[in-house]
Design goal:
Bound molecules: N-carbamoyl-L-aspartate
Helix content: 25-40%
Oligomer: single chain
Number of strands: 9
Structural class: alpha/beta
Radius of gyration: 19 Å
Largest sheet: 5 strands, parallel
């Protein structure tokens, strides 16, 4: 693998290899502390980020590479002066062995990859894709559930603008017998493209109107925040499908609650004590999943 632009570039074998490698790195961090010695990786983020950028940078440093970075690139890079992403990439590729980038434009990473001579990793492109989040989500599912074939996942919140759900559906389609339940405001429903994709790839899709439509023995809650910054009127009046301790009483003790984070109010903080809440562990898994990916691409 050279670039990671779309989730669909990953096969089931790639996921298994990367997840096994992430476990191996986690268990033996010292063995990987110098494997990217001498490499430089650039992170260029045109949209806000905490987990993705810092976990990538931590992963880069923990593998022995060095990092150069533009946080808030739309303000602090030449993007502000009107430079195109392509010109920025043509410049930065002389300074780094790989580029991790996030941008509000859905085509940004593929445009970057077209002109770049170094690997490009998509760390979030508009509302369309977030493949490395989907990778760490698969890693989290595998580690908590032991298997992914046959699971049921309810996706909640913003299924229209939430790119993490879009990339996750693509990766889940590599597994057998997957059911996706969806609960959101009617103005934030999954785009038709993903409903079609699920049909083509033999996934079962069930649209829910309330929590009562979700089966008791559902395996995974995948909660997301409303992407206010992408909604023209800010979306203050949209239904959020909040998870609370009261709501979670009706579901199995064996389920898990995931969230790509950051959260607003869509998971109440008293649920943090619930053993089903795994979202901070999920964020930690991002470090190991990204170490595995960087090692795979750069070593
Ligand atoms: C997500 C994103 O940027 O798409 N955050 C993340 O990378 N963990 C989700 C979000 O912003 O709501």
């Amino acid at each position: 693998m050279r670039n990671l632009i779309y989730a669909d570039q990953l096969s089931r074998e790639d996921l298994e290899r990367l997840c096994t490698l992430a476990d191996e790195i986690r268990a033996n961090p010292k063995d990987y502390a110098r494997v990217l010695d001498g490499k430089i990786v650039a992170t260029i983020f045109y949209e806000p980020s905490t987990r993705t950028r810092l976990s990538f940078e931590s992963a880069i440093l923990r593998l022995g590479a060095r990092v150069i970075s533009t946080e808030n690139a739309s303000e602090n890079s030449s993007g502000r002066k009107g430079e195109t992403v392509e010109d920025t990439i043509r410049t930065v590729e002389s300074y780094a062995d790989a580029i991790v980038m996030r941008h509000s434009d859905e085509e940004s990473s593929q445009n970057a990859a077209r002109v770049a001579s170094v690997p490009i990793i998509n760390a979030g492109a508009g509302k369309s894709e977030h493949p490395t989040q989907a990778l760490l989500d698969i890693y989290t599912l595998r580690n908590y559930l032991g298997k992914i074939d046959g699971i049921s996942v309810v996706m909640l919140g913003d299924l229209l603008y939430g790119r993490t759900t879009h990339s996750l559906i693509r990766l889940l389609s590599l597994y057998k017998d997957i059911t996706i339940y969806a609960l959101s405001d009617e103005r934030l429903e999954l785009p038709e493209e993903y409903i079609e994709l699920m049909k083509e790839r033999n996934m079962k899709y069930v649209k829910c109107n309330s929590f009562d439509d979700i089966p008791h023995d559902i395996n995974v809650f995948y909660q997301t925040r409303i992407q206010k910054e992408r909604i023209p009127d800010g979306g203050a009046d949209l239904k959020t499908c909040d998870l609370t301790t009261e709501i979670m009483k009706q579901f199995s003790d064996d389920s898990i609650i995931m969230h790509p984070l950051p959260r607003n109010d869509e998971i109440s903080i008293d649920l943090d004590e619930d053993k089903r809440a795994v979202f901070f562990e999920q964020a930690k898994n991002g470090l190991y999943a990204r170490m595995a990916l960087l090692y795979d691409i750069l070593a």
